[in-house]
Amino acid sequence: MIKVHGIKNCDTVRKALKFFKENSIDYDFFDFKKEEVTSNMIDYWLENSSIDKLFNNRGATYRNLKLKDLNLDDEGRKKWLKKESMLLKRPIIEYNNKVIVGFNEQEYKDIFL
């Protein structure tokens, strides 16, 4: 089963969900705003992806928290991900023991079709 993690009002999450719907692919949706992102989930994603892919340093949350001023190393970014789930790039998809971050239509076609 495909697990899609994100928030429904995120443009890239909407693109991913639209892709799955248009291709009649079933998925479970985990909403960051309604369910807690656990430390274990973040550890799993980091084991199967990278901090650079997962940590969103372009979003409003990053800017509002003024994290750029902190010059965070990887461990610092990991700690912030565990405190603030809105710093995660979206969507995060778990599928066949893989973690896919973001939306890339060609990558999705290669993996899911």
TrEMBL record:
Membrane spanning stretches: none
Pfam families: ArsC (PF03960)
InterPro entries, alphabetized: Arsenate_reductase-like, Thioredoxin-like_sf, Tscrpt_reg_Spx/MgsR
Gene3D superfamilies the record matches: Glutaredoxin
Listed PANTHER family: ARSENATE REDUCTASE (PTHR30041), PROTEIN YFFB (PTHR30041:SF8)
Family: Belongs to the ArsC family.
Name of the protein in its database record: Arsenate reductase family protein
Classification lineage: Bacteria, Pseudomonadati, Campylobacterota, Epsilonproteobacteria, Campylobacterales
